[in-house]
Amino acid sequence: MQKTANPHTPLLTDSYLVVHDGTMTWDIPGSNQLAGIHVQRDLGAGTYRLEYQRAPIVALAQNWLVSRGADLDQVTPHDEQLPTCDQPSRDLEQQLAQAGDRYRIANSYTSDLVLDPAYSSGGPPSSNEDLVYDFNTWIIAEDRRPEPGQHPVRVFYEDVDYLGRTYTLWEGGFPDLDAAYEWTRRAGEPDNPLPPVETEVVRSPRTAAARTTSPAAAVSPAAAAAAATDPTATRPRTRTR
After folding, report:
1. What single DSSP character describes residue 127?
2. Element holding 141 (H helix, E strand)
3. Whole-number Å distance between alpha carbons of 241 and 4
4. Whole-prediction pTM value?
5. Can you list the alpha helix ranges (DSSP code H) found in the chain?
6. CB neighbours of 237 closer than 8 A, spacing ≥ 6?
7. C-alpha–C-alpha distance, residues 175 and 127, integer Å
8. pLDDT at 22 over 70
9. What is the pLDDT of residue 129?
């Protein structure tokens, strides 16, 4: 949570929060369970304005708050009881939180299933260690400003190890939305890894510019072949009066 006062008008304050709504597990399956909340208070008038936006993962809730003036460091959870992640996941989270409007979220789905292997057998409930926790979230986003050589559609996939109190966030690239949706049909399965963001090896800008401005680049392969077989192709034309 972050609470700030307007330096020019101390009676105006802003509060920024990232919250988890546990009741969403009983809502429409896949619904976003997190939200960013922005509260503006006018202490002089005795009024306030509250706005919020739901988000599938913390980084996207932070993104919305940062766009409204929040300090990212102040809206980053630091509770020791919360799950932790590795450094690449933190880097990706920070990238998303500071991405502004670069990504347009097309769809997302949050799974928070707890499965008991003993349920189908009719036996007694399993212990917590034997339960299967299927906690993960996928997000399909369109990159409005992709870098050269990068796919225009991304899938961000957060996988939670509930018992280990850790989670991992990955990013994959796709040529279009249909390909991204097809991946999510088997999201997280071992034989269905996320493809790389980059499409292929891209020449450096200097090399690409040289190829496009070179005189040879302006000659089509067919014209080059004709010039090689026609001895008159390179002769200067005779100018008639």
Report:
1. P
2. strand 132-143
3. 84
4. 0.77
5. 58-66, 87-97, 177-184, 205-213, 221-229
6. none
7. 44
8. yes
9. 78
Tokens encoding 72: 């990212």
Any idea which residue has 């880097």 for tokens? 91
Q: How far is the C-alpha of 78 from the C-alpha of 1, rounded, in Å? A: 10
* 111 closest CA partner among 91, 80, 132, 129: 132
Mean pLDDT, rounded, for 176-201: 94
Provide the residue count of the chain.
241
User: Could you give the strand order of the β-sheet that contains 103-115, starting from the edge strand earlier in sequence?
Assistant: 84-85, 166-174, 153-161, 132-143, 103-115
**Distances from the Cα of 185 to the Cα of 25, 90, 170, 194, 196, angstroms:** 20, 26, 16, 12, 18
**CB–CB of 153/141 below 8 Å?**
yes
Residue 237 corresponds to which tokens in the numbers above? 């034309």
- Tens of pLDDT, residue by residue over 148-158, are 999 999 999 99
CA 26 to CA 73: how far, in whole Å?
32
Q: DSSP string covering 98-128, please?
A: T-TTSEEEEEEEEEEEEE-TTTTTT-PPPPG
Look at residues 53, 56, 77 and name the one whose alpha carbon lies nearest to residue 65.
53
Does position 209 have pLDDT exceeding 80, yes or no? no
With tokens 């105006």, the residue in question is 12
Q: What is the mean pLDDT of residues 72-84?
A: 83
User: pLDDT tens digits for 52-70?
Assistant: 999 999 999 999 999 999 9
**Block residue for tokens 């979220």:** 105
Give CA–CA dist 2/20, Å, rounded.
16
Residue 72 near residue 61, CB atoms below 8 Å: no
From CA 12, how far away is CA 5, in angstroms rounded?
A: 6
As beta bridge partners, residue 154 has 141, 173
